[in-house]
Amino acid sequence: MAPMNEYRTIVVGTDGSDLARPTVARAAWLAAHNDADLVIVCAYAELSRRQEARNPATIGGDPRIGQVPGRAAASAAIAAAVALAQEQPATISAALLIDGEPANALLKAAEERDADLVVVGARRHPGLAERLLGTVATEVVRRAECEVLIVRPRATESADDQDDPAGV
Q1: CA distances from 4 to 7, 8, 34, 148, 151 (A)
Q2: In a domain, 13, yes or no
Q3: Residue 164 covered by a domain
Q4: Which range of residues forms the domain containing residue 106?
Q5: 114 lies in a domain?
Q6: What is the domain-level CATH number for residue 104?
Q7: Around 89, how many Cα atoms within 13 Å sit in the side-chain half-sphere?
Q8: Looking at residues 104-120, what average pLDDT do you find?
Q9: In this model, does residue 129 exceed pLDDT 80?
């Protein structure tokens, strides 16, 4: 393991959502300032060609399941994350599209790459489904064998904060 505060490999998840932008930016900044490799992961749910053609979702995925619906949307999310990370400029060692559940995809990438840090985003006010089933961030924190950084959006950055004005 690297000495404290020294990261060699950082894994970050993206789904193309508004929350993904500050999450990827933070991970890229850390990677650039630590001279670490950055691994960007996007978990998606495979759709048939017919389902993908009919998919009304835009980049950002389906927040009910935490996966990007379809490979095309996942590719767009990865491309956006790579472009953002290159602005830092971070060394991107991999940009991975993984058909599967987001927490499992991040944890697998972190294990395979011997990551020192996993960076995930978390909504300020999770929806009912997330409260009942748990979030990607919660699952990653529970199971990761390395450090985990949770990036929360500022109140003005997150449309998710507007969904629940009572903050419950």
Answers
A1: 8, 11, 12, 13, 20
A2: yes
A3: no
A4: 9-123
A5: yes
A6: 3.40.50.620
A7: 0
A8: 97
A9: no
